[in-house]
Amino acid sequence: MGLIHRAVNDLGKPYSQDGLAANPPPGENVENRFTVAAPCQIVLAAHIIRTAMGATILAVANQKGGVGKTTTAVNLAAALADRGRRVLLIDVDPQANATSGLGVDRGAVRASSYDVVVLGRPLVDARIPTAVPGLDIVPSDVALAGSEIELVGMARREHRLRYALEAAGDSGDEYIFIDCPPSLGLLTVNAVVAAEALLVPIQCEFYALEGLGLLMHTLALLRRELNPSLEIAGIVMTLFDGRLALAHQVVDEVRTRFGDQLLTPLIPRNVRLSEAPSHGLPITRYDPNSRGAIAYRELAATLDQRLRRDAVRASDIPPA
Ligand SMILES: Nc1ncnc2c1ncn2[C@@H]1O[C@H](COP(=O)(O)OP(=O)(O)OP(=O)(O)O)[C@@H](O)[C@H]1O
Ligand SMILES: [Mg+2]
After folding, report:
1. CATH code for 39-307?
2. What is the pLDDT of residue 228?
3. pTM (2 d.p.)
């Protein structure tokens, strides 16, 4: 059996990490199993709050680092704003890559996702416009780096971002993207609890399939134990290099396994995409004709059509 086939076959099998059995004994509290300070601490629950707040809330998540989470969050958000959508991007990664990638001057940040998630400040205090009309950001801050420890002792620690979003009410956003750090810690948990669905970027390489196995197992477990409505809005294949046979094999396997959850188009490896953040611009502004820009624009169209085709905003309905 080839390596790729083995990794893909493993996706469906019980996964054990730190002795965590896929099938917990009856009555065992899964929440506690996941919230101890362990490498895989996670409590996920999705809440469909689109109807209450008008926005489609997507957590861009994958515990694997460097797979294109931030690149996807920033460029999809910008491309959707260019399509006339109102978009908010919340950066809950202490690395603050989405924040710098959108050209936010950190010196000018009055409040950040740290203030919102840890200190309980209203979301509106931290929300600032970007250079892209229609796209706002709640920036991250280095203070967020200690938040995993600060959050551990707090009540309802997994729900703090969700509460902040609910308290903010309908701000007119159609999409809210949450850019997650490369871990399954409490910040990612907060993002996923606040979201109705996940957007999962996967790099077109072999190890990605192994990482996906862990992610899928975790989702299946938590969906089963905590919230059956957790959805995957889509899988985004990133850093695709069509010259490599391995890249095609990985895509084929993911497509076989996940069908139309794999969003099109694939995102090509494109140097302009890696240059854009240093200019503080999304690719659609930095180099609108690049392959990366074209791909993210098309991906935005795919996602928009899938997720909001039938969406009717409460504010669009005239009063009776
Ligand atoms: N399609 C692409 N083509 C070329 N470079 C890319 C592409 N996508 C991402 N990159 C580059 O790869 C690196 C990792 O991407 P990115 O920061 O988006 O990943 P990430 O998953 O958010 O990482 P982390 O887990 O650290 O948050 C960055 O330098 C980014 O510019
Ligand atoms: Mg990132």
Report:
1. 3.40.50.300
2. 67
3. 0.84
